[in-house]
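Fig. S4 source data, part A: sequence.
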Amino acid sequence: RHRENGQEYAVKIIDLLQDESPNNVEIQNEIELLKEFAGVDHVIHLFDVYQTETYAFMVFELMQVNPIFFN
């Protein structure tokens, strides 16, 4: 949740130290692909990316789940 405006976001957290984690090239490819399709219907919006030595945080729009999919 954004501290100032209360907007909720989804965050994909990637542990860069785990063996099965994607490498920096794979993460960059995902980011570039999401940027290329920004604004296209049915494609989630990537707002921002933060990275430390151990984690990458990809901030996405929060998708509201329709309960009909879970019946």
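Fig. S4 source data, part B ends here. The helical segments are 24-36.
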